[in-house]
Structure formats: C-alpha cells, structure tokens
From TrEMBL:
Example of a GO cellular component annotation carried by this entry: cytoplasm
The protein's name in its UniProt record: VWA domain-containing protein
Biological source species: Variovorax guangxiensis
Signal peptide limits: 1-28
Residue ranges of every copy of the VWFA domain listed in the record: 295-498
C-alpha cells in the first residue's frame, strides 16, 4: 500500500519563499529538493469544504486484477419531492449501496486503502454523507437565461428518432492541442458551469535516465502557501498542469515532485516560464510490462432520450473489444460500466465494477434500458463521482480511460458531488475522460463535457449527421457544436482509434 509522506509546513514554506526571491532575481529554474514535504494520495476531506486544496481528495488506484464476475451496485432513485424533504429522503435511501442479487461479490476483491482515523472520508465516500454535508454549490455567473428556460426547469432540446440499423458517425476535437481556440470557446460561451481557471498551463514531461517516457508516474505540485494538485502522467509520460485551477494566490514558484517505483525527482516551476517542465527520474528503470494494462469504462446517461445511443453501443461493443484486443500492445483489458438517470427514477446510479469477462459485461450492457429523466439535466455529477472513486481501478502501469456518453448536462442545483472536484481527482488518479456529446446536447452540456475532457487530457467527441440539426437525417459530417477542423468516423472505430493512440505511446514492451 502506498504510504503518504509526513507533511511539514515550516521548511517548505521557507524554502519556497526564498525560491521565489532567488528565481525572480536570477531566472533559475533548478533548486535543491525539499525532501519529505510532498503528500501523496490518501483519504482526505472533500475539496468543497476547503478554501484551498492542500490534501488529495482521492485514493491512489491500487487494484491488482479484474479476473472476477461482474459486480453490480446501485444507488436508488426516489419520488420527486421538494426542498429539504428531498435531501433528507435521498440521504436515507443512499446510505447503503445494494448489490445486485444476481451477482455475488468476488472474495478476491482488493481491499481498499486504510483510512487514517484522523482524516475525514474521501470524496468517494457514501453519497448520502456528501449530500447531507454539502449545500448546492455556486456556479459561475452567466448571462440571463433564454426565455424558454426562464420560467422553470431546463427542457431537453427536441430530438427525433433515427432509423434503425444505421451507423453512428462522430467527429472529435483535441482542446489541448488547439488550446487557443478552446480558450476562445470558453470566452464566447456563457452558460452555468463550475469554474476552474485553466487559462495558464504548463506541460510536464517525465523521462527516465535513458530518455524513455515514464507513463503513470505520480505527480505532486505544491505552492508555498500549501495549495497543491496531483496528477499521473499519461501513456506518453505527460501531464498538463494548471496552477490557477488550484492556487487562487497565483504563487510565483511551485515545487513539482514526481515518483514511481521507488524513484523520485523534484524540480521547480516558475510562473511565466516558456519551456516545458522536464523531469528525469534517475536510478534503474522498472521493468516494462509485457502487455499493456487497460481499464476502460463506459459512463452512460441511461435516460429515455438515450435509447438510440445505448442500442448502438450494445451492437458494437463486441467489435470494439475485438479490435482493441488485436492492437499491437495486446492489452490486458478490464471493462466497467456506470449508468445513471436522475433522482426521480428507478435508480440514480448503477455501476458494474471492472471485469475481464466480456460475455458477462455484454450481458449487463444488453440488460440496460433507457428510461426516465423528465427534466433536462441528469445525475452526471453523482455518476462521475462513483466512476472515479468507487470502481476498482488497477494500480501502477495501467492506462485508465472513461468514455462518457451523454445528451444533457449535470444538475448543478443538487448538493453533494460536483463534476469539477471529480475531474480534478480523475487527473490525480490518471483517468482520462473522452466525452461524447450525443444528439440533443445543448451549449451547457457541451461546455461541461469539454471542461472534463480537457482537464483530464482526453478529447471531446460529438455525433454527426447529414443535417446537423436533425439526428433523424442519418449519418453525416455535420454538427451543431462549436467546433472546427475535425474528421468523421463511425463511433466504434473512433473509440478504438483513441484507445490505440493512448496505448501506442507506451514504451516498447508495454
């Protein structure tokens, strides 16, 4: 089990403050390591209760395998009532997760990391506790709502049924590759959302002494005032760092510490530097796994308007799995499924933990039905929280991917988990989210899906049609979304392409 370093404020504070003065005078970027000041993921208070995040809000991934039957857990829905009564009733219903009676949990389930008695439960703790303790979170100010939504709840855009047995086409944009355009999209799109300032960013690149990239290395970034963030490098040994997203004081200098397999290295990031943050992990590199390890999750809005998309995924899952299995890295793949609806439905979140039993996984997907919903926003916040914190993600040297398929934004008016906290935790656990905008996704939904994808290093994928505004027009190249410079493929081929690109960046042998 990964043990945290003991945190000591006095020495890091003095050294980093001195660093700011020295770097300002000399322009230097290399300094002595601070030593034992770095903190690594252990259970910690939810970030919403902290003015500045100073401890991780997640557990480090640590599962060792997924060779087990499908295990299913459910957070129940509830009748729609109002105000405090709704919150109290929902908290009561959510205190226990119900294991599916058709599935017996495997006795080989990895044990969770121990929780120090002095610390609060992590952000992935029982949903009821989060709802009971957290008021509805404030959202970024926006322009007045359109008249169609001013009188009440958000309403879903009109959607038309598509003909059966036709391919689903999709385009994709990489907002980290075209970051200036992404910032322009941010500036011209005024919708309710959870604000994280990503306007300043730095690329971290980690290599070993031979110059080979180091994937899945743990990263801790810390300011002198205690503000901190965590990440794991992707399959190419990279991670994007956004200081303003975690440090409101906008400190001048940050300590960046990277570790993996007993090796550790520290450098300093100076605000405003033009070059990337390059870290070399010295010592003997660890052995590269003979096969890549891939944890792949489908996170799906299962409300009534998603019937077409769910049907297409059911039909193509086997093709996706077969094509992934034939990739050059021959990945050892674990599949997970998280479906969600809303509070007034049969279930809020239903999650199926990782398994390598593809037949069993296809079975739970085939059993999924699109139903419920009602209003336009859905329980994406709660579902993303369970995806990040409650699935048995494998530990070191794993590529962790989520395909989020949704046609509506999350409820921002509920208390409890919020998507921005969990996208931050996802980066800390090395989970990339590929957000897929289904038919009917509005501007707010697009904005939030792109936030999640960009911050975690993923991509924004969107379905395309012959007539952009009419999904019933059939597959095509047009979209209503605010994107440009994209190519179009069928959705299943695009998912395989994204997985292939991720695994293709791994060092040779993995």
């Amino acid at each position: 089990m990964t043990q945290p370093f003991v945190y000591r404020f006095s020495r890091p504070l003095v050294v980093l403050l001195c660093a700011q003065l020295l770097l300002g005078a000399s322009g230097a970027t290399e300094m002595p390591a601070i030593g034992s000041s770095v903190r690594w993921p252990t259970p910690a208070p939810d970030s919403r209760t902290l003015p500045t995040q100073t401890v991780p809000n997640f557990d480090a991934p640590s599962a060792t395998h997924c060779a087990r039957p499908v295990r299913t857990y459910e957070t129940p829905g509830m009748p729609r009532v109002s105000g405090a009564r709704e919150e109290r009733r929902y908290a009561e219903l959510s205190k226990e997760y119900r294991a599916s009676p058709a599935v017996v949990p495997s006795p080989t389930t990895p044990k969770p990391m121990a929780t120090p008695a002095a610390k609060s439960a992590p952000a992935g703790a029982a949903l009821a506790d989060a709802i009971a303790e957290a008021p509805p979170a404030p959202v970024a100010p926006v322009a007045p709502a359109p008249a169609a939504r001013a009188a009440g709840e958000l309403q879903a855009p009109v959607q038309a049924q598509r003909p059966a047995n036709e391919p689903v086409t999709a385009g994709m944009v990489d907002d980290n590759a075209d970051f200036s355009e992404y910032l322009a999209f941010h500036g011209r799109t005024q919708v309710p959302h959870r604000e994280r300032d990503i306007s300043v960013r730095y690329l971290l690149q980690v290599r070993d002494a031979r110059g080979a990239v180091v994937p899945d290395a743990e990263v801790a970034v810390q300011a002198a005032n205690g503000a901190a963030m965590w990440a794991r490098t992707d399959s190419g040994g990279r991670a994007w760092l956004h200081p303003n997203a975690f440090d409101k004081a906008q400190s001048a200098v940050y300590e960046v510490t990277v570790r993996k397999n007993g090796r550790q290295s520290t450098v300093f990031l100076q605000r405003g530097q033009k070059n990337a943050v390059d870290v070399v992990l010295g010592g003997k590199p660890g052995a590269v796994p003979a096969r890549a390890r891939l944890d792949l999750v489908f996170l799906i809005d299962a409300t009534g308007s998603m019937d077409d998309e769910i049907a297409k995924l059911k039909a193509t899952l086997r093709t996706i799995a077969d094509q992934v299995a034939r990739l050059p890295s021959r990945p050892d793949t674990c599949f997970g499924l998280v479906a969600y609806r809303d509070r007034g439905d049969e279930f809020l979140v239903r999650r199926h933990d990782f398994t390598n039993d593809l037949d069993g996984f296809q079975g739970v997907l085939d059993a999924l039905r699109a139903a419920g919903g009602g209003d336009y926003p859905e329980a994406m916040n709660e579902a993303l929280n369970e995806t990040v914190h409650k699935l048995s993600w494998r530990g070191n040297d794993t590529t962790r991917l989520v395909v989020l398929l949704a046609d509506a934004p999350p409820h921002l008016d509920y208390g409890g988990p919020q998507y921005d906290d969990d996208m931050v935790a996802a980066l800390g656990k090395g989970i990339k989210v590929f957000s897929v905008g289904a038919s009917g996704l509005d501007k707010q939904g697009e904005y939030i899906q792109r936030q999640i994808a960009q911050y975690t290093g993923g991509r924004f994928v969107f379905l395309t049609y012959k007539d952009a505004a009419n999904p019933a027009s059939g597959p095509g190249t047009q979209t209503v979304h605010d994107v440009g410079n994209y190519s179009v493929q069928t959705l299943d081929k695009l998912i395989v392409r994204l997985v292939s690109e991720e695994l293709g960046r791994l060092p040779s042998g993995g």
